[in-house]
Amino acid sequence: MRSRVFSGIQPTGVIHLGNYLGAIKSWVDLQYKHDSFFCIVDYHAITVPYDPADMRQRIFDAAVANIAAGLDPDVATIFVQSHVPEHTELTWLLNSITPMGWLGRMTQFKEKSEQFKENVNVGLFDYPVLQAADILLYKAEVIPVGEDQVQHIELTRDIARKFNSTFGDTFPEPKALLSPAARIMALNDPAKKMSKTLPGSYIGISDLPAEIRDKMMKAVTDAGPTPGQEMSPGTANLFTLLKEFSAPETVRRFQEEYDSGAIRYSELKSVLADDIVAALAPFREKREELLGKPVVVKNILRQGADRARLYARETLLEVKGKMGLL
Ligand code: TRP
Q1: Active-site residue 112, yes or no?
Q2: Which residues lie with the beta carbon below 6 Å from any ligand 1 atom?
Q3: Quick check: is 193 catalytic?
Q4: Do residues 281 and 299 share a domain?
Q5: Is residue 202 one of the residues assigned to a domain?
Q6: Looking at the structure, do residues 129 and 27 belong to the same domain, yes or no?
Q7: Residue 13 has pLDDT above 80, yes or no
Q8: Considering only CA atoms, which residue is closest to atom 11 of ligand 1?
Q9: Residues 169 and 252 in one domain
Q10: 223-240, pLDDT tens digit by residue?
Q11: Ligand 1: which residue has its CA nearest to atom 13?
Q12: Nearest CA to ligand 1 atom 5
């Protein structure tokens, strides 16, 4: 049997090249090899301060952007977490077997409670149990995530093991699948990760060609090549992007020019910007099309939730039965 894939999508609005290369691109490949579930995690998103007036749009935009970038609703199940109430129901059941100490140790909780001192709410503390419920509800085994989520997947394994030993074998233990892609750094500050909160640092997958060229031309490189020594972080970042978006001959040519000291960074940037523009064009077109048909997107999400619920209900019945609740 094909092992099942599950991942959660934060409804953040902008998707940049770092998100695309680090996550979505590998999900697009995985969906053809596994029974895949991609869930827009709105119940996770409300554990930090947010504007309710924006949330509906953020959820919709996340669906549009991910479908435009290649998640295929005919192949994978794409849905919104709050549309499937079994996620919160299983969370409550799993809460009853999760020691508070396990949650207090979570790095993301510690960081976010530092960042949002004014609002360290119970939901933020319980966030990892909701994430475990997301995964275990579908008995998913392969969880493609970034490095920062590995601890949450380990916790999910601990919860699964505890449930199995307490109430009888029920859940497989899921494994994190780390993206093979290199980290993409901020164009204007290559010591930092590309991020939507750093203006000028990122290229969004729906940026217009002129914006892409403009941000690329302003990317930080160095005064000139240093063949034999390590490449500067900014230049290395451009080569990483070149390997992702340009033809192998192009990569080879610029590498040779770098090695011989003949490279002109303005030319590298210009070619790279053109290749990124070309690669993103189909995403932009698909996005425009979907933005013009909100009903189609809503139907995709409704059908996704209907399909997800078939599995979710079955697991929940099994769990409640084992826990003596049915
Ligand atoms: N916490 C994850 C993140 O911030 C998102 C997420 C929620 C998730 N539920 C999940 C990821 C289940 C993998 C599996 O990126």
Answers
A1: yes
A2: 6-8, 10, 41, 44, 131, 134-135, 143, 145, 149
A3: yes
A4: no
A5: no
A6: yes
A7: no
A8: 8
A9: no
A10: 888 888 899 999 999 999
A11: 7
A12: 8
